[in-house]
Amino acid sequence: MRFTLLLFILYQILKRAAKKKRVYKNYIGTRQPVRIMIKTADGKRGRLFVFDQGKISSRGGSKHAYDAAIVWSDAKTAFKVMLSMSDEASFLAAAEGKMKLDGMVFFAQWFNDGVKLAI
Amino acid sequence: MALINGGHLVGKYLKEVEKVEIDFGISGGHIESILDGFTEYKIRTIDVRHEQAAAMMGHAWSVYTGKTGVCFVTAGPGFTNALTGIANAYLDNAPLVVLCGRHPLRDDLKGALQEMNQIDMVKPITKWSATCYDIRRIPEYLSIAFRQAQAGRPGPVFLELPPDILNIRVDETEAPMPAYMTRKYTVHPDDAELKAAAEIINDAKKPLFLGGTGVAFSACSDCLQQFVEKTGIPFQLLNYGRGELPDNHPLSIWEVGNVGLTIAIPRADVIIAAGLRFNWILQSGGIIPPETKVVRIDIDPHEIDRNHQADIGLVGDVASVLGQLVPLVEKRDHNQWLNTLKAAGRSFLDFELMMRETVTDPIHPIRMVAQIYKYLGDDAIYIADGGNTTYFGLTGFFSRHRAGVIGTSSGLLGCLGTGIPFAIAAKLARPDKKVLLLNGDGAFGFNSMEFDTMVRHHIPIVCVVNNDCAWGMIKHSQELSIGKDRLQCAELGMRNYEKMVEGLGGYGELVTKDEEIIPALERAFESGKPACINVVTDPKVTSPATPLLHQSLKME
Question: Which residue among B125, B142, B151, B392 has its CA within the 20 to 30 Å range from the CA of B485?
């Protein structure tokens, strides 16, 4: 539940940053549609973020098509690592097999770098 | 009294002094006596179909043999055609001697055939360029050319030889052959710098060794092995340095490909970079955190602090410097750091690792590369040429041989079309090895007439075309920046490249199904001919290199 809420809050933050923060606005500015999914491996929780020429939309659920996905082993780990905003925590989660990337790795990295600008 | 003409002097010098076995070029009126010199002194000539391929083959010869490559081109268009290949060698620091014809000195300013100022054009893309005006000085000029190409940071040199000196004769005693300069001058870093570097390396908790082309041209396998195995430092060898130690060495992080590099660099506390420029691939040094300690080893002192202030700079040949460092560094075990890197890398590469095992229709290029590697294994020479194709090749092929996996178009010039010339040179240099070229369909177009060269000279390589019917990297980059509905100059359409190769006398097959890949490879290698397997792959697939290209050119 906390993970689902965190994803929803993240969407709100990104949506606001896309309107108010110039640096983030420029960052996502001209990008044609890119779909980023964040979900748990069991597919029970997830949220899709869609970036299209500077606009962000989002949909709850894990069953949507995506270009890249950040897949967490479980919601608890996902919540803890994402909230920490630490690259090192993400790296260690990956090393322990608790976080994997699906699809285009670059887009996941692009998304994460953008989040740092937005917050 | 024995008379010898200028062209024969060229042949004599190459054979007797430099022991040149092979050279690459195209015939031309201005250089006829040089061609006859090759015949006289039994130098094998590979006559190609476009001079850029000759320059690229000479460049590649230096990569695969460690010896300076030689190409010959005629004046005017022969010269201008070669420029792309010369520029590529220049940006890749490859030793290459370009012998070029020239309009007669006698006819200067008279509107002579192919009269042009070649020297001024080639100067910015060579280490050294000159015109020889005296037949008696041809051996001396050639000697200077070879020394310039090889000494210090290697690179291409250009020597212009006009008919006025090639087509006349002189007594041989008036043009003596200089002794081959066997002396190799090495530069040694300061002892205090070496000691300081060793202290940094000994204190490192998460070190990383990166080796580039300088590692290859110093042929430092033994020293490098001693260094990494004593220090236990994880490493990745890039560009022509790849294969100086096998990709499957336990300390190599190539099994997690380029991702290994991107996750290791920001986390390493010490980076030892040897013979490697911090160029755009490494975000001009921007990928290295400011707090990371950097030890740079380079033969060129100008490179030491370029794009990133080094904590320690060790100027010298990589083999020599590592040889001096080995006694100073202490035995260490960094397996925990290494295993963490590899494990994280595998998680980031989860999708690619899965695609290697997944049969799809249309064929996914990652799967195609995995099938090729399943068939050939690491006892082969791999070359990848293209945009996305280079990424798939560099990350999906592994070799135990020097320069065993090269992305020819991933150098600074980003020069598509280099794959075929490199594959030809690789097979000539290492005839006992299987040579597999993975070519994008766009890149294939630039030098594919060289299949005729392969047929005439019996050079059996196998070229697999990753055919996505487009300039894939450009197409997918445009999709990101411009939009799918406004693609421009991005599509190529389906073409039967295998039939073109068959028409030239080679072997060809079209592959559209996963299960056809390995049998087609078997037949291609068994044919003993230059072969093209045209594999139709999924046009929707792109590689991480595409968004990187897109991002690197974004200006807002």
Answer: B392
Task: Give the closest of A30, A96, A105 to B348, CB-based.
Answer: A105
Q: A96: which residues sit within 8 A by CB, 6+ positions away?
A: B343
* Domain containing residue B458: 349-552
Q: Where are the alpha helices (DSSP H) in B32-134?
A: 32-40, 51-65, 77-91, 118-122
DSSP string, B236-292: EE-GGGTTSS-TT-TTB-GGGHHHHHHHHTTT-SEEEEES----GGGGGGTTS-TTS
Yes or no: say if B174 and B108 are a contact pair by the CB < 8 Å rule. no
Q: Are residues B304 and B201 in the same domain?
A: yes
pLDDT at B442: 98
Q: Between chains, do A95 and B548 touch, taking CB under 8 Å as contact?
A: no
The answer to whether the CB of B209 falls within 8 A of the CB of B233 is yes
Is residue B370 domain-resident?
Answer: yes
Q: Indicate yes or no: CB of B547 within 8 angstroms of CB of A88.
A: no
Choosing from B344, B376, B392, the residue where a domain stops is: B344
A/B interface, count of CB pairs below 8 Å: 60
Distance (Å) from the alpha carbon of A41 to chain B's nearest alpha carbon: 13
Alpha-carbon dihedral angle through residues B513, B519, B521, B527, given to the nearest 10 degrees: -130
- Residue among A29, A94, A107 whose CB faces B344 most closely: A94
Tell me if B347 and A99 make a contact (CB, 8 A cut-off): yes
Q: Is the pLDDT of residue B549 over 80?
A: no
Interface test with B, best of A100, A111, A116, A117 (most B CBs within 10 A): A100
Residues B167 and B234 reside in one and the same domain = no
pLDDT tens per residue across span B221-260: 999 999 999 999 999 999 999 999 999 999 999 999 988 9
Partners of residue A34 on adjacent β-strands: A51
Nearest CA in chain B to A99: B347
Sorting pLDDT into bands at 50, 70 and 90, what band is A113? confident
Contact A101 B347 (CB under 8 A): yes
Q: Do B547 and A107 touch (CB under 8 A)?
A: yes
User: Residue A100: which of B266, B267, B350 has the nearest Cβ?
Assistant: B350
Chain position carrying tokens 């990008």: A31
* Residues of chain A with C-beta less than 8 angstroms from the C-beta of B485: none
> Which H helix or E strand runs over A7?
helix A2-20
Using a CB–CB cutoff of 8 Å, tell me whether B256 touches chain A.
Answer: no
CB pair distance less than 8 Å for A30 and B554: yes
For chain A, which residues make up each domain, given as ranges? 2-115
Nearest Cα residue to B96 out of B148, B32, B39: B148
From A54's Cα to the closest Cα of chain B, the distance in A is 12
Question: What pLDDT, on a 0 to 100 scale, did the predictor assign at position B179?
Answer: 80
Query: B180 in a domain, yes or no?
Result: no
In a domain, residue B302? The reply is yes
pTM over 0.90: yes
- Residue B544 at interface with chain A, using a CB cutoff of 8 Å: yes
Residue B1 has pLDDT above 90, yes or no: no
* Mean pLDDT, rounded, for B397-420: 94
Q: Letter for the amino acid at A94?
A: A
Q: Which of A71, A104, A110, A116 to mutate to test the interface with B (most CBs of B within 10 A)?
A: A104
Number of structural domains, chain B? 3
Q: What is the ipTM of this complex?
A: 0.91
Where on the phi/psi map is residue B243: left (φ > 0), alpha (ψ -120 to 50), or beta? left
Q: What is the pLDDT of residue B183?
A: 64
Residues of A in contact with B343 (CB under 8 A): 94-97
Could you give the CA distance from residue B523 to residue B510 in angstroms, rounded to a whole number? 12
Q: Tell me which architecture the domain covering A2-115 has in CATH.
A: 2-Layer Sandwich (3.30)
